[in-house]
Protein 1
Amino acid sequence: MISTDDKQYRLRIPSQTDNLELIRDFVAGIARRVGFNDSEINKIELAVDEACTNVITHAYENKDDQDIDVAVKLDYQKLTVIVTDRGKGFQFSDVEMPDMKNYLAELRVGGLGIYLMKALMDEVDYKSRPGGKNEVRMAKYLLKKK
Amino acid sequence: MNGFEAKREDKEEISVVYLKGYLDAHTASEFESALQELVDEGRVCIIVNMCGLNYISSAGLGVFMGFIEDIRNKGGDIKLAEMTDKVFRVFDLLGFPMLYEIFKDEGAAIAKYRKP
């Protein structure tokens, strides 16, 4: 039976790295409630952490008084996390396996975070609007229980 | 309550850093300080014991990468020990097993340093 009740949960939180734990707990709590297993929950919280870390360090260039919006949407198919900021836009090109020789360079430009998001989640999308909002959207499908 | 701790224990020429809690963009600088202290003292035979570490992100992994070249140039190493499966998965995704020696227990890492 398909439920038509989509659920949405929102968190607006200052752009400080010491809030990353709260953000992880927020998405992990919802993922657990929906029935994802530990391994899937770990992947979701890490992907969201990487997205938010990129927002803090790149979009907001470490300004700690900006807003990060983390929305979690649930439908019958999947859990989607949307991380929105109003900072600097981002080059979200297709990132291959990071060159470990350039690990630090990749880390500085957020390439590792993007690579991890794509490896951990089933769908990852990015929209950057000049002068407006930037949005990372990532989703994990709910699997049927066997 | 701090969510992260890096505790050092010197075992003769080897320094073991015990990580506890979570290693993310917020706590990475604390781990960085712990490694910097060792490098400043010339102690470059390092083992990072992660049995108490329950989370790591790319920021945490970046701390290792920030030191490894210099430490190896000085004749030392950073060997990794006692990772949980969860933490290992993240290391594995970023190709760390190709670059670092990873041990199931600290004793094996120590033995590797002392192997003639």
Protein 2
Amino acid sequence: MATDISSATASETVAQWFRRSSALRCTVVLAFLLVFTFLSVKAPGFLSISNFVNILVNNFTILAIVSLGMTLVLLTGGIDLSVGTAMDVGSLLFISLISAHQNFLVAIGGGLLGALATGGFNAVLIGGLRIAPFLATLGTLFIGESVQQLATNGGQPIYLITGTLTPAFGYIGHGTIFGIPFSLCLAVALIVIYYLLTERTSFGRKAVALGANPNVAWYSGARVRCTSGLVYVLSAVTCGAAGIILSATIKAYVPLSGNAYLLDAIGATFIGTTLHSEGRPSVIGTMLGVLLLSIVTNGLLLIGWNFYWQQVGTGVLIFFVLAMSFLGQRLRA
Amino acid sequence: MEPVATSGGDGFQVNGAVLLRAGSLIGFGLVIGYFALAAPGFLSVGNITNVLEQSAILGVLSFGMTIVMIAGGSNVVTGGIDLSIANNLGLSAAVYAILLKIGQPDVVALGFTLLTGLGIGLLNAIAVVAIGILPLIATLTVMNICAGFELVITQNTVLQASSPLLAVLAGDGPFGIATLAYLLLIVALVLIVVIQYTPFGLRLYAVGGFREAALAAGVSVDWYIATSYILSGICGSIGAVLSVALLSGSSTGSGDMLLSVVATALLGVVFSRRLVPTISGSLLSVLFIGFLINGFQLTNISSYWVNGVEGLLILFAVATTSLVRRIET
């Protein structure tokens, strides 16, 4: 790209200004700072340690973990509509095994295995049969819905009886490590793992190459189908972990509850892509996106907007962030 | 990103696609045949009308989605898709019900409802064409905005509505067949003619099929893509009017229809000769799903199976489609 040759002249056009300006590349950072400042001034109690902990635990954790999986998949140029299904399957098996008085670790293993199976199914469809990811994961989503309805007699939640639970169970949902909630620690650990995986490993490079140009990746000798299958397995297992944390927190399995995270995860990941000059998903960008969504939800609640107006506000905000960044990309190109 | 085959395999290409199309039609026939034998009354006029009536809303939405997919191209991530269409229905239905509730006449209410759909379509068109946001993510945000506004104006409650027009729509037309059934077929017929048999429709396919070629041929690509989103928006509000008529009011949770709309529009591909989205194909796939649900009900199979069967159908259809395409190239 020889666009950098154009240096600043007196008669600089708007397009040239955009091209030079790195401000628009950081639309999401800018939006984040603006929203943060606005809420700090307007929302009572927003700017306090306890509220930030509250945001991180209640709004950030689950969505962040789900979005990590989505980021990896979008990085390869695919999409995973079955993240919620993997969450639900993980949660269903975990809660079922706990209520059948199985060992706590067995239940976690079972939940993760269930999610692994969901991801494996996607991997076979996408890597093996070469079905387009959107359709393959849509199929998985539909099948997952039926499976859950059949398993729960049409969508009856499974509640755990509080008295029978072991202390270890309570630890996942409500325990702390050095005062930091366990679920948040796990989320941070996963973020670090995913960051290293995508930025520092050969697997990560292959995933990026696959997303940039699958033909070139194939000619370069990357095992394209293997990589494209594996990302769905990783995504599903990660989402399974999110499902286990969610159900441990609320001590119940609610059928089809995972789908609520699907669109937010896609939104957060795409907000994150605006951080990258070529619009590529990245772990850090996605986390900023999740954080933006989390503080907006929390802040608007504190301001006193009801849930309905929050949804409008969040939607309009995301629309503007995306509009600014895509407009910037278009003018730079 | 499949390499484009420029020549060869013409004879087989036709055979493969024809085979698949015939296969899906035979599949459709077999399912209907099975239910006709297993459930007495399945093929009665009353029941067929019932299926048409129940399928009307999904059908109209599916047509809108199909138009966007035609103009946007077949790639589902970067191509055309309108995720806002189901929540468009929710918002438009709420607008219609509220206007009737505060005593506006049918004409005013209908006008504003269609304007709502038009506005949502316009917003999608601006986001996709003028700003250049990926359709998937642009329509996703518009969907959230629609859902939010619907919640704000309905306070998440069901609004009852009645009017002379709704009474006509919810009632029976000539020969005692439900008006909604007629409407589904009329809308389908109009769109089939417009999309599949006019220069406008041909250019729509050209824009989606090969953007650069369409540009080189002098087609104003942006205008056609924008039009597809606006048409889809209007389909959303037409669906809203039908839904208010069928349910005698607005309802919550319209967003749940989205995945079914996407699924039927994609499934419709296997009913077309060249394996592209068509209105007639979408009509067939909507009816297929409609008959399937109806047959399950009549034979006392749990409705929980419906989603799973739909999912398997998508996977089967797509797997065979991509197989046929691979043999072609």
